Amino acid sequence: MLTPESLEGHFTLLTATARYDALRLRDSLAPDPDVQPLSRDEVLEMLALGEVIARKAAYGRQLSVRSARAAGASWSQVGAALGMSKQAAWEAHSRWLEQNAGRAGGSEDGE
Question: Which of 54, 76, 102, 109 could form a disulfide with 86 if both were Cys (CB 3.0 to 4.6 A apart)?
Answer without folding.
Answer: 76
